[in-house]
Design brief:
Elements (H helix, E strand, L loop, with lengths): L11 H7 L4 H5 L4 H7 L2 E3 L4 E7 L5 E8 L5 E2 L11 H5 L7 E5 L2 H9 L4 E3 L6 H9 L4 E4 L5 H13 L4 E5 L13 H5 L3 E2 L1
Parallel strand pairs: 5-6, 5-7, 7-8
Antiparallel strand pairs: 1-2, 2-3, 3-4, 8-9
Helix pairs in contact: 3-5
């Protein structure tokens, strides 16, 4: 295609505007260390927590937002969602042998607070994400999507589209709808099923 789309990246100057703490981060069980690592911020104009979504090289593709007042998530119109957390994983030495796959960025970040490596799809998975998952240099994925129908659908889609990895699942404790509902101890001791 001769009209190849030129990627424009979000500048560090723009991200600097969001580099402040907000109490909602702590309500969602983040720590200052993971807020720093994932460059999570706060946009006062939209009353939202900001999540820079980066490519594997650390360039910011777009900023996702989560309202602190409602459950509203916002992605820029037409944004193709990559796997969230690939850049942060790429900085780990050695690269983790196993990685947890979540639906939401908040769930993935929460796993990092207990020393587990996780990424997020921000949905049920798309072709770009399945390719990125297949290309990741780890051996094993642990699925920890939400416990609702959409979460089960996401698990089925990953198993169908990512066949070159060992895939197991975490079973959320009874009554927990997602990883962020769990205690840190529950996250550390979650049982895997094949």
């Amino acid at each position: 295609n001769s009209e190849e789309k030129k990627t424009t990246y979000i500048s560090d100057d723009e991200l600097d505007r969001y580099r402040v703490y907000h109490s909602y981060m702590w309500q969602r069980k983040m720590t200052p260390e993971v807020v720093e690592m994932f460059d999570v911020g706060y946009d006062d104009d939209t009353k939202s927590i900001t999540f820079p979504v980066r490519d594997i090289h650390g360039r910011c593709l777009f900023v996702a937002r989560r309202s602190v007042l409602t459950k509203f998530f916002n992605y820029p119109a037409g944004a193709e969602k990559p796997v969230y957390g690939l850049y942060e994983l790429s900085r780990c030495t050695p690269y983790p042998k196993e990685v947890i796959i979540c639906e939401s960025m908040i769930d993935a970040i929460y796993f990092w607070t207990v020393g587990k490596y996780a990424v997020a799809l921000n949905g049920l998975g798309n072709e770009l994400q399945f390719k990125q998952l297949r290309d990741m240099p780890c051996r094993k994925f642990i699925l920890c999507t939400d416990s609702d129908d959409a979460g089960m659908k996401a698990r089925a889609r990953i198993k169908k589209n990512v066949r070159n990895k060992l895939i197991v699942e975490y079973v959320l404790p009874d009554g927990r709808k997602d990883a962020n509902d769990c205690t840190q101890e529950e996250l550390r001791t979650m049982q895997e099923i094949f």
